[in-house]
Amino acid sequence: MADAQIDVRNVSKSFKRNGRTVQAIDGLNLSIQDGQFVSFVGASGCGKSTFLRMLDGLSPTTSGSIEINGAPVNRPGRERAFVFQQDRMLPWRTVLDNVAFGLEVQGKKKKEARAAAMELLTVVGLARFANSHPGELSGGMRQRANLARAYAVEPKILLMDEPYAALDGQTREMMQAWLMETWEASKRTVLFVTHQIDEAVYLSDRVIVMTARPGRVKADIAIDLPRPRTLAVKRTPEFSQYIDQIWSLIEEEVKESMNLEMQMGASS
């Protein structure tokens, strides 16, 4: 096997909440190869989003190490881009200027940055909205612009934290299909956090099932469905089998997580 692009070794993360130490992640070990699409699922509070923030260098590990191409992660880097659940677009800038923003921060001249941003807006089907402001776009359009902004800085690794959680079902499915098309074209490494099992199976090469807090890898499931994929794959028996397999692993974890949260709430 080729050397891992991302190497996570015995990573733990704890933090203080209401005067108590909360162990969010404990002994997480994981290797991810260049160009893989890997999704993370698990009960609420199992550390999925926390792990992405550590991988981006936004939050330090309590113990253990995270390396990208052999270099330790201790701060955000240009090879990574983070797509949050909320698009976080700057409301006073046009869509074009929002997409160009990261390039400007990197030091590119405004004209060059805007030209590159316009190319991406064309790719995501938003060229005619380039001079609109974010508040004038639908949720799906804002997320397409948000992803274009992430792609603009040409990251090798794309970190996506429930980017479609706020979208309606139909828009979400269309955004999944669009993401598949763009990933097939670029083959960037993607780490994708979601609560939707079907979304994880549809998008991914691997689905990492996390245990309830503290988060560890409970299962690492290879998704052996042909690519390129269309939404029609969701109606196949093989797809349903993956859904059932992953849900059977998560069901008890979800119940355990809910009980833990109720206990902590009652004692606080």
TrEMBL record:
Could you list the residue ranges forming a coiled coil in this record?
none
CDD domains, per the entry: ABC_NrtD_SsuB_transporters
Q: What is this protein called?
A: ABC transporter ATP-binding protein
Keyword Protein biosynthesis in the entry? The reply is no
- The chain positions of domain ABC transporter read 6-237
UniProt cross-references to InterPro entries, sorted A to Z: AAA+_ATPase, ABC_transporter-like_ATP-bd, ABC_transporter-like_CS, ABC_transporter_ATP-bind, P-loop_NTPase
Organism's domain of life? Answer: Bacteria
- Supply one GO molecular-function term: ATP binding
Which keywords are on file for this protein?
A: ATP-binding, Nucleotide-binding, Transport
Organism, scientific name? Arthrobacter ginkgonis
